[in-house]
Amino acid sequence: MYQYDELDQRLVDERVEQFRDQVARRLAGEITEDEFKPLRLMNGLYLQLHAYMLRIGIPYGMLSSVQLRKLAQITRKYDRGYGHFTTRQCLQLNWPKLSETPDILAELAEVQMHAIQTSGNSFRNVTADQYAGAATDEIEDSRIWAEIIRQWSTLHPEFSFLPRKFKIAVTGSPHDRAAVRFHDIGIVIHKAPDGEVGFEILVGGGLGRTPMIGQTIRAFLPKKHLLSYLEALLRIYNLMGRRDNKYKARIKILVFELGIEELQTLVEDEWNRNKDGPLALPQAEIDRITRQFSAPPWQTPASAPNQPVGAVHAFENPAFEDWERVNVAEHKQPGYAIVNLSLKALDRVPGDLTAAEMDAVADLADRFSFGEIRASHEQNLVFAHVRQDDLLPLWRSLGVLGLSTPNLNMISDIICCPGLDYCALASARSIPVAQRISMRFQDIKRQHNIGELRLKISGCVNACGHHHAGHIGILGVDRQGEEFYQITLGGNAGENASIGKIIGPAFASADVVDAVEAIVATYLAIREVGETFLEAYRRVGAAPFKQRLYPEPNHAVA
Amino acid sequence: MTLLVYTANRVSDGVVVFLAEDDGWLEIPRPSGVIRGADMEMRMKAVAEAAEEAAIVVSPYPIEVTDEGGEIRPVSLRERIRAYGPSIHPEFAKQWPIADKGY
Fold this sequence. Notes:
The structure holds two protein chains of two kinds.
Chain A lengths: L5 H22 L5 H9 L3 E3 L4 E6 L4 E3 H14 L3 E4 L4 E4 L7 H10 L16 E2 L13 H12 L14 E4 L13 E7 L5 E7 L11 E8 L3 H15 L10 H8 L1 H15 L8 H10 L25 H10 E3 L5 E6 L10 E3 H14 L3 E4 L5 E7 L3 H11 L13 E2 L14 H10 L3 H7 L4 E4 L13 E8 L2 E8 L11 E2 L4 E2 H18 L6 H8 L2 H7 L9
Parallel strand pairs in A: 6-7, 7-8, 16-17, 17-18
Antiparallel strand pairs in A: 1-2, 2-5, 3-14, 4-5, 4-13, 8-9, 9-10, 11-12, 12-15, 14-15, 18-19, 19-20, 19-21
Helix pairs in contact in A: 1-2, 1-4, 3-4, 3-11, 6-8, 7-8, 11-12, 13-15, 15-17
Chain B lengths: L2 E8 L5 E5 L3 E3 L11 H16 L3 E12 L2 E4 L2 H8 L11 H4 L4
Antiparallel strand pairs in B: 1-2, 1-4, 2-3, 4-5
């Protein structure tokens, strides 16, 4: 994985000391909260309902076991012994003291981590496919390009005060596991008919109040022009994006107002002026970054014989077979597999991991996956390089930790924002709803019978829980002081992205799990052989679901 | 009559605090902090603003509460969660006997 060079390390170290001084001045009353707020946000420090919250960036979701142990140590020493993996491959600490935050950042810097640009109106953590470097369908490793973008975008002087935050995601596979179509810029690696590898650039995707699917602004961009093109696109956004209304400041609104063709023309004009300038990527630099993502020393196929996923140890242990079928994915290297660690067991908070679990996962990563861990935007963890021979002992170890629930992409594998239990912006709680749904559908055989069903919950319209992109989406709303939940159906975050449609009036908190149950029952009644929930919904539309949910007019309170 | 208490987050650690008349900023709302009358309202507002100026608290504001025999309970769900802690983590709860009555 990428190792900081001297410049990277100095930048992060200097930022820690700069922030230490800013915190000292704030604590001494020398600067006001209004003056301090933009400074702390630039270092990922929010003030939430109960305490400060520190959002630590995990570039493209990739952690070493050393880093994960450091995170465990930090949560023990400075926080309350757990962290929360977010939908953008970051880790949040919910209880840091302001006075200790510089020490936390200093400890993070020791393991080449930081919280710079995890908030504020600038580039956010660059995300990527959690299977990068291991996926069978991968054209090229997305982490290489995410890292190149990270280096270009970190403290970029021209783009430090964008109209609004800016999120970029990269996938190197046609099967989109990184939700790139719901990012300000989504990058899809393609191979042209002549064999050249380059990028499709999508722009204007996003969730929040105004969900939109990214549109292609350039169908194919040669590799060496990635940064010059992004710079041109960002320059146009920085100049033309709205600053008069924060709800209309994201680039998706600019795309909507200008139209993709006009934006494309403006960007191409800007790009043509600069594309062969200093940002044209030298092959030597691409090669330097590529070397940082070399494959780990896989064993030869002879010593790690390959078997199709699902066939390993078949008939020995039904619970293991369930886990292997659901949570294990094929690896491009014969004899290896990709293992998903579910953070969505029945009694868990989606995305939370305790310090003890972090240490244990780090140990397992050392033993089974070359000391490397990935965080997914679905708030799970991934061991990307596990020998098939090791699947059974790994499964047993994960079982002890409660991280082997075979529910990947099932109804209980819920993406869920922190909601009103933590978040100052939230309208309603989301975690208790996720836990109640998990409880209702706790029978894993039932979940497997239902099949793939992505359920996503947000506690407010800002949509950190990606509810618009859920096959079933749940949005918490405040109705005169009471928690209500609006349900959307038919959203999808993958390569066939879609935005869920509101099915009808919102449900009271006490009724929302029954509503989900009714939706699932409707699906089971109408599905054809082999048809997933999303396929069935797209075939029949909302009508049968609506009929089941609202048999009588005014059943629920709007 | 609407009962109000000033609340804020403490600058040093972000913890939720409530203004009590004689005891300053406490993590649990006290009956002495409940504003009764215009004079007290002006006085508590001034104390809160001074505390913000002195970088003791961030963004103080009044919240509506009920006083049930000395048990001061915020009215809105958001403020109850602020006062009691996350509803999903009873181990972090403040005022658990009160919080246990429900958020």
